[in-house]
């Protein structure tokens, strides 16, 4: 399912316009992105938690030359599923 399918499904099931649903989804994604960028965590009880994690620096290898390269520490987004989501998938 992609974003367009999600918008269509929500609009159809809830009797809303696609434009209204798209506005809400875009707003939700923007708020989650802003929160993660500022180092905050977004927790939706039962669904899951969006957070950032530090990935430590390491030494990698260039596959073309075999030369060692230094890969710096970075921050990556992460999602941890909540209990209700896990149960629904089982």
Automatic annotation (TrEMBL):
InterPro entries: Hist_DNA-bd, Histone-like_DNA-bd_CS, IHF-like_DNA-bd_dom_sf. The keyword Transmembrane does not apply. Gene3D superfamilies: IHF-like DNA-binding proteins. It comes from Paenibacillus septentrionalis. Belongs to the bacterial histone-like protein family. CDD domains: HU. Keywords: DNA condensation, DNA-binding. SUPFAM superfamilies: IHF-like DNA-binding proteins. This is HU family DNA-binding protein. Signal peptide: none annotated. One of its GO terms (molecular function) is DNA binding. The keyword DNA-binding applies. Pfam families: Bac_DNA_binding (PF00216).
């Amino acid at each position: 399912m992609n974003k367009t399918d999600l918008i269509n499904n929500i609009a159809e099931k809830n009797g809303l316009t696609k434009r209204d649903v798209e506005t809400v989804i875009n707003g939700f994604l923007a708020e989650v992105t802003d929160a993660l960028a500022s180092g905050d965590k977004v927790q939706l009880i039962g669904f899951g938690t969006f957070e950032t994690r530090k990935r430590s620096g390491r030494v990698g290898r260039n596959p073309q030359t075999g030369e060692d390269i230094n890969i710096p520490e970075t921050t990556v987004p992460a999602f941890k599923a909540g209990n209700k989501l896990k149960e629904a998938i089982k």
